Amino acid sequence: MAGGRPASEPLPFFKVMFTLMEPYTWFAPAWAFVVGCIASHRIYFDLGADAWQSIVSIGKIAIGTLMAGPLLVGFSQVWNDWCDREVDAINQPERLIPSGKATRGQVFAIIALLGTAAMAVALFLGPPVAMVAAIGIVIALAYSAEPIRLKKNGWLGNLAIGLTYETCAWIAGHLTFDPQLQSASASHSMVLALIYGLGVTGTMIINDFKSVAGDRQMGIRSIPAMYGESTAARIAVVIINAAQLIAISLQLIWGNYIAAGVCFLLLLAQLRIQVQMIREPTQPMAVRYNIVGIPPYTWAMLVAAIGL
């Protein structure tokens, strides 16, 4: 088109940064961080008694979601896009890195900026939070980079995402307000963080449907590439529902009957789209699942945290 920008001409730095950070991916870890804060039952909010302490609590939640979402997930997305540039050249050649619209220098400057900012915020929230953030960064590097490249194996890669996007983010939120894990619900919070993180492994299997062709060509052993889309859809649904049923059972054991009941209703709300996913295991249906099936799962996390 006349006047159009050539594909090989780099875009401005900040446009590259926000595009590669993929804002739509920030929600899940940011949400998990908030859920962890709630699960700690140490948030102070009483404007009538101590307005300043209430503002401090809200501020910690706000900057914690910034750390978990834009900074840490943004870091991992940019790093992953760099390591995936050859796969993307097959699946999505129009993306910034394979198309030449983002330079190597821009990419590594963004990675350094986001990683440094994330650790600075984590240290502000406390050494325990910083330790969890550092673990998340290490896993993010190992997930995408050779020679480890966890994502080459669908089981290890999806497990890594579940444990970082959900479990680590939840734990970081809890530690922000309960750094010594002294609250009465601390052990239950940690268990639920692990269970819901494992359940996310199933949603990540569905997410892998978008890159099956490139994964097969590049030898990346994603679950859909290894077992086929039909079997992968069934495996994903089993994992997602097993995690929720375990969480519901534990809440019943702990005496959180109302929370368990609400979580069960939210599980039922996912069944229709899950059946559709199994019957039609395609990329468009995987996109639809992300829109329809994931929200009830994330709401169940919040209900479980309140139930503690």
Brief digest:
It contains 16 helices and no strands. It has 308 residues and is an all-alpha fold.
**Element string (H = helix, E = strand):** HHHHHHHHHHHHHHHH
The proportion of residues forming helix, as a percent range, comes to over 70%
CA-based shape: globular
Radius of gyration: 20 Å
Strand content: under 5%
- Total count of domains: 1
Please report the distance between the alpha carbons of the first and last residues: 58 Å
From the helix content, strand content and strand pairing, which structural class follows?
mainly alpha
Walk me through the structure.
The chain is an all-alpha fold. The protein has one domain. The protein is built from 16 helices and no strands.
Features:
16 helices; 0% strand; mainly alpha; 308 residues; disordered N terminus; single chain; globular
